[in-house]
Design a protein that fits this description.
Shape: elongated
Number of helices: 1
Strand order of the largest sheet: 4-3-2-1-9
Length: about 130
């Protein structure tokens, strides 16, 4: 996933969509809340980048401020990490493919442990044709 394409981190929280998009060169990051850009920053090579925003709460009307930190894993060649900090809690934002071409391959089914499972899979494949 660390190819020449943009990287997207996404998390749904309290009915809101929070997305961080980092450009292919790794020089700029944007924070989107519900599809709207609310913050943007140049990323630093050796330090995490912080982006801030707020979410509208349903009942109370008080905004919930949050901070997103985007940085590298501590291992050489590691994937970038993105975390969301709000209400004293830290959540990891997963790296999500942007397009169908960038999707990860489906995990293969485990090997059948009995002949009956093998036969059932063959029948299911034939019925699906």
């Amino acid at each position: 996933m660390t190819s020449g394409a943009d990287q997207r981190f996404h998390l749904d929280r309290d009915g809101h969509s929070i997305t961080v998009v980092r450009d292919a060169g790794g020089r700029r990051a944007e924070l989107l809340v519900d599809g709207r850009v609310v913050a943007a920053a140049r990323t630093r090579r050796h330090a995490p980048t912080e982006l801030g925003g707020s979410l509208a709460r349903g009942g109370s009307g008080d905004p919930l401020p949050f901070t997103v930190r985007l940085g590298r894993a501590d291992i050489p060649g590691g994937e970038p990490l993105c975390t969301l900090e709000a209400d004293g809690q830290t959540s990891l934002m997963p790296l999500v493919p942007l397009t169908r071409r960038e999707r990860w391959p489906d995990e293969p089914d485990p090997s059948p442990s009995t002949p009956a499972q093998l036969l059932a899979r063959r029948r299911a494949r034939r019925a699906g044709r």
